[in-house]
Amino acid sequence: MKEKMPDWCIKDLKLERDLILTNDIDSLMSSILLEVMTNYLWRINYFYDFTSIYRANKTKSATIGVDAAFTKNVRTFDNHYTIHNKASANMNRIKGIGIHNYCEKYPFSTLMLIMAYYDIPLPKTQIGKEIILATDSAFKGFYTTNKRFKQIYIDWLEDMGYTCLIDILNQRDKDYFYKLQDDYGLNEKIEIDEQGYLHTKINFKDIQPHFDFKIGLPQQRFIYIQTFQTDAHKVGVKPIPSKDKLISLAYTYKDWVCYTYKDDEEQGAD
Q1: Where do runs of H (alpha helix) occur along the chain?
Q2: Which domain does 9 fall in, by range?
Q3: pTM tops 0.85
């Protein structure tokens, strides 16, 4: 896996980079981990909620998306099946996943991708490991009743070095993980208020004891830059905007696509 990832994943580690945070726990924990791992050479400086983008400070640093299927040639860590972007650290791109083999796509979170790539140990506590599995519903594929799909999931656990999680998955069931998501607010979105500050109902207080890095929202104010158009529809119902207009795109199901794009008439901040 490592040798097929984009060169920037290693080459940029000692360079200042601006991270683009999106609106969920997967992106947040991934971004915080990347900040800590790089001794804060990489810092959260943008917030992207798939409709608008905001920036905390003007810098000259290149950007890195975190849990966003950016198109074009934008550096990003991502776990979605999307259109080709050679700068994307994305296991689906590396494995050649397409519509024809969509059922074999990467089934885990962006957080688990980053931890595997950079050899970051799993949390010491079982609850910590379960929170990792509950992030972005990474547990779901294990509980499918389809034997072939379950084996694909187990194969991915092996490929990513996560076979140690099989015992936990066997001990629990999907309802346990859904309750865990509710208890810790793992499906709550991150939102931005009119003053530019981030808010969420994610239960950081109860999550924190299971991780050895500080978890919470960035406290800086984010300034609005621009709003984009969004759409979601069944594949083939209507044309997808050209790649030069797309900002991000993800196939959330084999026959369903969601995307953000730039309209020629859109205006940004004054």
Answers
A1: 8-11, 25-37, 91-95, 110-117, 126-134, 147-159, 166-171, 174-184, 204-207
A2: 2-123+190-204+216-223
A3: yes
